[in-house]
Fold this sequence. Notes:
Number of helices: 2
Number of strands: 9
Helix content: 10-25%
Radius of gyration: 27 Å
Shape: elongated
Largest sheet: 8 strands, antiparallel, barrel
Strand content: 35-45%
Number of domains: 1
Amino acid sequence: MKNLAALTAVLALAAGLAACTSPGSSTAPAAAKATTPTSGTETVSGKLTGSAAASDHPVFHLTLTGPVGITATIQLGPEVPQQGDLYTFHTAVGDLAVTLASAGTSTGDLKSAKTCLYALTTSVPFTVDGASSTGKFAGATGTGTAVFMFSGDDPKLSDGTCNTSRYAQASAKTSVATLTATIKLTVKL
Length: 189
């Protein structure tokens, strides 16, 4: 009797497996939930102080508010932005990739000859790169402008004047950097 029950179970299992792999059946996952495009303004903001701001490769921890409100990180390098450069905002729900539309504009000057306070602002337009974006940002479209601001006391030269060369390392004690962006964004949520 045990053998008959075992044989019946094996036959039932075999029939079940055959049904799962037969030409008329499918093992494909159920259709994905339909997505609806959502548009709006995504605002991005973050601030660094001290040695984090003075770093040649600052890592910003950002707050995004808008269609995909979340937090993100992005690392910037010491190089001057160029048209076509790709930057990526990393989030828990995917990466938002953007391509610079131009090198942007930069303004900077010495604010105080006494403390050697220097301030720099760079504004760069960009386009959302939906093909390079992932997760909730995959296929996203849009345009925006990022603004990077930095201020800090430059070192003094031996003659007492301020070293304002591009490679002068600002004092970590006084350094502040902000990154903001406004993006007209369409995503498929």
